[in-house]
Write the structure tokens for this entry.
Amino acid sequence: VIGAHSDDPEIGCGATLIRLLREVPDIVVRFDVLCGRDMRGDEAVASANKLFDGREGCEIVTHDFHDAHLPADWSNVKLAVSATWPFEPDLVLTHRPDDAHQDHRLLGEIVGQTFRDHLIYHFEIAKYDGDLGQPNVFAPATKEDVEAKCRLLDTFVSQRDKHWFDDETFKGLMRLRGLECASPTGYAEAFHCRKALL
């Protein structure tokens, strides 16, 4: 899971990760958070520790890039993303390469360049720019998983003053995506998959 900012993985795929951690006993997960300076990095680690709950083989790596300026440090971002991974991932979760946020967009592009033979699901993050689009992969989530995702997001106290950072936003988008895929639970997270090899 590769996120530009400390809360991006939880916003984009938190319920899906909660479900995978519950349903796949031997799952190995790595979070890479590029803009993990100071308090934001501490929040990312605290949230990941809650999510992983001491599970063997799960880790978080934070980097010290400056928020909202990733494109200015393109070369170093690419080096960080393409650094040696401790395992060969079956699935990579990250931002969309057409995301309106410059940091998200850059990561979506770099991940596609780096993980050329991997299944990549690009998650979505609601924002002022209104760039959600039409996803083509859906992961149903139980109400319990939705609530657990919101509890993870409570960790990010630095974001609470943002007008969009609240449970209603996260649940509302998941309810809409649940409607679109006729989720039996009523909720889902949605992803964009550019290419999948069957």
Remarks:
- The mean pLDDT is 96.
- The CA atoms of residues 75 and 110 lie 10 Å apart.
- The longest helix spans residues 8-23.
